[in-house]
Design goal:
The chain has 4 helices and 4 strands. By secondary structure, the chain is an alpha+beta fold. It has one domain: Glutaredoxin (3-Layer(aba) Sandwich), CATH 3.40.30. The longest helix is centred in the first third of the chain and has 16 residues. The model has no long low-confidence stretch (mean pLDDT about 90).
């Protein structure tokens, strides 16, 4: 990435990033891996989600960790972004729920509202 030397450079980076985001067709699963998430089992959740995605050959799904999402009491938290839909944050996810999120939401488009975090 080039160095930012002016406001114009920063605006150019912003516009390129927004363009990439607008053209994105990949689904994203983001697992909260702050210390609170890790202690609540987020590592196992992330591995279960990755395994389920691999088993189903879902090549259009990206899985990545992030730091604390900010609702420690509800960890492990899993954000799911599907292009054209509102982001969904699932709470108190264990490995089994992680696998079901892949099947229900990423494959079939069904949101289990009982698992959704309320901010």
């Amino acid at each position: 990435m080039s160095k930012v030397r002016s406001i114009k450079d920063l605006e150019k980076i912003k516009n390129l990033t927004l363009e990439k985001m607008a053209n994105n067709t990949r689904k994203r699963v983001i697992v909260g891996m702050g210390t609170c998430g890790i202690s609540a089992g987020a590592g196992e959740v992330m591995e279960a989600i990755k395994d389920e995605i691999a088993k189903r050959h879902l090549d259009d799904v990206e899985v990545s960790p992030t730091g604390c999402i900010g609702l420690c009491v509800q960890e492990p938290l899993v954000e799911v972004e599907v292009p054209g839909k509102e982001k969904v944050v699932f709470c108190q996810v264990d490995a089994a729920k992680g696998r079901q999120i892949v099947e229900q939401y990423l494959v079939n488009g069904i949101v289990n509202k009982d698992w959704v975090a309320n901010f």
